[in-house]
Specification:
With 226 residues, the chain is α/β, with parallel strands linked by helices. Helix content is 25%, strand content 27%. The strands form two sheets. A seven-stranded mixed sheet has the order 5-4-3-6-7-8-9. Strands 1-2 form a two-stranded antiparallel ribbon. The protein binds S-adenosyl-L-homocysteine (SAH). The site of S-adenosyl-L-homocysteine has 24 residues, from strand 2, helix 4 and strand 4.
């Protein structure tokens, strides 16, 4: 079912980074309403501790966001699961754009399910570390770029799905223009104190159907490159 499974060696870990810790997290996500078994299975098989500093390894499988440096965070596992399931609900997209690579965790979760991921990050050092993780995990279906993600990735458009992992006041126009006419976009929108996860679906005629998926808390979508 995973189109790109990770090598078993990536899952070695003891105690707080063991398979048991990941299994417990997967069970918790299910209890908290995640329904898509593909997403649960991928989170169960993705070593989140590889995406954070060693000092935080003992907290890797807690259902919380954690700092990754440069004032940024790796998202809460429940939020990663919810966004991934919202993106997959109408079928598996072939080509997905992510804005905000951060640690690379969300990209790696998606890359195990969909054929092609394109991810953009504005902070070069975070991108460098994320690329190293993609290589170490043997994932060759993730392409990444150091740029202002508000511009999307025009040369590779259109995308069947787009996910933003940082919150702006609105979805930048350049990004919406890069969504295929029947594509799906999932993004947090709003201010730090009042954010909503939204999903937009193209109706094929140039309009979008918009839904609210619940309150969330993401770091801000900034302009320019860091
Ligand atoms: N998906 C990430 C979440 C990282 S937090 C993960 O799984 O770890 C959001 C990230 O968005 C941060 O790394 C931040 O630097 C980045 N970001 C914010 N504004 C951006 C922009 N305009 N273009 C690209 N990346 C941006």
């Amino acid at each position: 079912m995973n189109v790109h499974p990770l090598p078993p060696s990536a899952l070695k870990g003891e105690g707080m980074t063991s398979q048991r810790a990941r299994d417990r997290l997967a069970t918790k996500l299910k209890e908290e309403g995640i329904r898509d078994q593909r997403v649960i299975d991928v989170i169960r098989n993705t070593p989140r501790h590889h995406f954070i500093d060693q000092a935080l390894h003992s907290r890797a499988y807690e259902n919380t966001a954690l700092p990754i440096g440069h004032g940024q965070t790796i998202s809460q596992p429940w939020v990663v699961a919810r966004m991934t399931e919202a993106l997959l609900e109408f079928g598996v997209p072939q080509k997905v754009l992510e804005i905000g690579t951060g640690s690379g965790y969300q990209a790696v979760v998606l890359a195990q399910i969909v054929p092609q991921i394109y991810t953009v990050e504005r902070i070069e050092e975070l991108l460098r570390q994320a690329r190293r993780r993609f290589r170490q995990l043997g994932l060759t279906n993730i392409r990444s770029r150091h740029d202002d993600g508000k511009l999307g990735w025009a040369d590779e458009a259109p995308f069947d799905a787009i996910i933003l992992t940082a919150a702006g006041d609105a979805i930048p126009h350049a990004i919406l223009d890069q969504l295929s006419p029947t594509g799906v976009l999932v993004a947090p929108v709003g201010s730090p104190s009042n954010q909503m996860l939204i999903r937009m679906r193209g109706d094929g005629q140039g309009d979008f159907i918009q839904e609210e998926l619940g309150a969330v808390s993401f770091v801000p979508l900034l302009g320019g490159i860091g």
